[in-house]
Design a protein that fits this description.
The structure is a homodimer of 413-residue chains. In chain A, strand 5 and strand 6 form a beta hairpin. In chain A, strands 2, 7, 8, 9, 10, 11, 12, 13 and 14 form a nine-stranded mixed sheet that branches. In chain A, strands 16-15-17-18-19 form a five-stranded mixed sheet, with helices on both faces. Chain A has a three-stranded antiparallel sheet with strand order 4-6-5. In chain A, helix 1 (18-37) packs antiparallel against helix 5 (140-156) and helix 5 (140-156) packs across helix 9 (227-238). Helix content of chain A is 36%, strand content 22%. Chain A has helices spanning 18-37, 52-55, 61-68, 87-96, 140-156, 171-180, 185-197, 203-212, 227-238, 302-311, 334-346, 360-369, 380-385, 406-411; strands spanning 15-16, 41-42, 44-45, 48-50, 71-73, 79-82, 105-109, 112-114, 126-135, 164-170, 244-246, 260-266, 274-281, 295-301, 324-328, 351-353, 374-378, 387-392, 398-402. With 413 residues, chain A is α+β, with helices and mostly antiparallel strands. In chain A, 46% of the residues are buried. The first copy, chain A, is elongated, with a radius of gyration of 27 Å. At the A-B interface, strand 1, helix 1, strand 2, strand 3 and strand 4 of A face strand 1, helix 1, strand 2, strand 3 and strand 4 of B. Strand 1 of chain A pairs antiparallel with strand 3 (44-45) of chain B.
Chain lengths: 413, 413
């Protein structure tokens, strides 16, 4: 006899059992609803992309592609990567159809993305990510809108303003500072890296590294708000958003950001980490042709969001999509049960029907295990009299109903 | 200057631009709605699976895994496969939680699946597939229900009974025939393969191969309906389904089928091919432990379904999800426009707003390109008077409205 296989999924990815899937669907529906309200239109793509797409972004990406992505050579000799993020894909797609689209162009997608890294809390090898991008406008109102969409998604999940803070920085501001201080290209990169790490190191460590680079700390005071950040803050404040602030240390890791950048932080003291972020990138479509299109966007992952909602008790409770389980006294009643089921389905009720090949008590137990809220027993008595009894499988309460009243009972719950 | 990258997707997979994505969403929503009506509950899993999952099913799968799937070794030395189908995954997931589930257990999923093959019409390297399965019932009513779900999905897409035919066969019948004729195991396999190819070869070729195996053609007459197929046909007929027939040549390719099997065919003469199919498989969960759970299910792909609907004019027309584009006379009006947008969004209207950094005529042109149905111009006049004009971007018709009447106008379209 052969050894049995493990029932575990591949390492670092998840199985979505009905309750997990219902949460994922809730997340997707919330993402979609907010993005559409702001005029964003959904697109999608395959997880398979030519590896060049990720190598092209800059020298330091070579390492990212070879060490942190799922990359392999297909049988036709093509190097393929499972997308680690969506931005290069959307830039490719926009570049391909630039003549057909109108600008400003608002797009969103909810792809799954892959990273080859050691799985840990909040970081898995595969996660789903809302991506919202606007292309073709240099207006600061576009930067502000992207941040507003992020804010509205948080609110739609039930978060309050004091649950999160939106920290806004500027890559243009850092570049201007580097120019003013005559920093070398290498030191500018170091400064960006240092700012990106600010929250992960001590104040002393940060300031000593800063002085090593020759950057006076007052240049990074949060009182000197750069003009681009101020313009964005003004729009946000006009929209009634009260939890956005300037933070000079916000620079974002990716090399492609060029302007206003932002990160949303959890405000819980024990978990004051970055939940997600985004910003403006001006040159991504230039990978494909000479007409650069400016873009601004953000990406928001499902794992981080689940954890954020979980600790705040904001996760929705599971509700079985099936309204009623129809238990059948014996196989003889099955054809009659199927006709009643059909009647109910035509009126919009979701009905699972048993096949009568098990004892009634066992049928009821199985329905409870699957968390179906109501039970309807179909036996000779019920069929002859036309009087049915609906049992609430949680409370045990029973409601007598005639056949014509069944559908409205289930639909009103 | 570096060479520019191609904007094409990886070979054999698709980009989903807004219109493609809207069709995919329509497909998913229709799949979901029908599956839920019959009490099926949604699950999902990662596309990454340990390769053993596909190798274990039988000797001939070794070739399938190495030649027809995307399989690679990860950096931890694990062999990984991009799932080519969902059935092994759902069997794995059910085996893992068999104690927590109630049976009969109804599950569905709409995964994307991958095949490494030469792309051609109707067969791509990645497609989406509705998978519907019922576990834990040996009743023929379970087989019939699966077929009924498939039928109802076709109807939900607008297909009529004369657009497709459901051909039902039986692996148990073929096995019984082989036993009766004392066929060797090898010849039984050959018979299954021959039946599976029946529609692709000539009548003469089929009959000569049949006689070579020593199978009298009358044994395969569609008048001798096996008992299992008859039981299923009876239930289907009771449910009012008039396009299901017995066809002894229906056996399905996969080795794991054991009982009733079926395929749905397009009835158009010029394209009388199999659209999709399924059947009963009894031993799949035994890969994981000694308790086999019987299952019956089907898989239905998006590419085939798109082609089927396309030739019949059943594809839905694209409707931009954005109700209205707000053009802005100048940047000065942007803050006012944003407030109106916010008002409309709170009432459920999907609004895209311009940033006023382009001429009005250009803003209108861009909105039309993106197929937004209505336009609302925000200028000083409108803001002062409170009188707005909504323009239909297709017909050019204009409707004067005051601010309070805007939302209901858009929502009633």
């Amino acid at each position: 006899m052969k050894d049995k296989l493990s029932t575990e999924s591949y390492k670092g990815v998840r199985d979505f059992y009905p309750e997990d899937q219902q949460f994922l669907n809730y997340l997707l529906a919330t993402y979609r609803s907010v993005a559409k309200k702001f005029g964003y239109v959904e697109y999608h793509a395959s997880i398979l992309e030519p590896s060049e797409l990720y190598k092209a972004k800059g020298a330091d990406n070579e390492e990212l592609v070879s060490e942190q992505t799922y990359t392999f050579v297909d049988r036709g000799g093509r190097e393929v990567t499972l997308r680690p993020e969506m931005t290069p894909t959307v830039a490719r797609m926009v570049a391909a159809k630039r003549r057909e689209f109108g600008f400003p162009l608002r797009l969103f997608s909810i792809p799954n993305v892959f990273r080859y890294e050691r799985p840990q809390r909040g970081r898995l090898r595969e996660h789903w990510q809302l991506n919202v991008d606007i292309f073709g406008s240099e207006s600061f109102a576009a930067d502000a809108e992207i941040i507003q969409v992020a804010y509205e998604v948080m609110k739609a999940f039930g978060a309050e303003e004091n649950d999160f803070v939106i920290k806004i920085g500027s890559r243009a501001f850092v570049d201007a500072l580097a120019l003013e201080l005559e920093l070398s290209e290498e030191n500018t990169k170091k400064l960006v890296g240092l700012l990106d790490r600010k929250n992960k190191i001590s104040k002393e460590e940060f300031e000593s590294a800063l002085s090593e680079l020759g950057v006076p700390p007052e240049k990074l005071s949060s009182n000197n708000i750069p003009a681009d950040v101020q313009a964005v803050l003004d729009v946000l404040s006009g929209a009634g958003i009260g939890n956005a602030v300037f933070d000079p240390s916000i620079v974002r890791g990716f090399a492609y950001y060029t302007g206003v950048v932002f990160e949303v932080f959890d405000t819980r003291e024990e978990n004051s980490r970055s939940l997600f972020g985004g910003g403006r990138y001006d040159n991504l479509t230039e990978l494909f042709d000479n007409e650069g299109i400016t873009g601004v966007g953000f990406g928001m992952g499902d794992v981080t969001m689940h954890d954020f909602l979980d600790v705040r008790g904001l996760l929705p409770t599971y509700q079985a999509p099936t309204h009623v389980y129809m238990a059948v006294a014996s196989e003889q009643e099955v054809p009659h049960a199927l006709l009643i089921a059909q009647e109910l389905r035509e009126q919009g009720v979701n009905v699972a029907s048993d096949f009568g090949d098990k004892k009634l008590a066992d049928q009821i137990k199985q329905a409870s295990k699957n968390k179906v809220p109501y039970l309807l027993v179909i036996g000779q008595n019920e069929l002859t009299s036309g009087n049915f009894v609906v049992r609430d499988l949680v409370s045990g309460a029973e409601t007598p109903l005639d056949r014509a009243a069944l559908a409205s009972f289930f639909l009103s719950r």
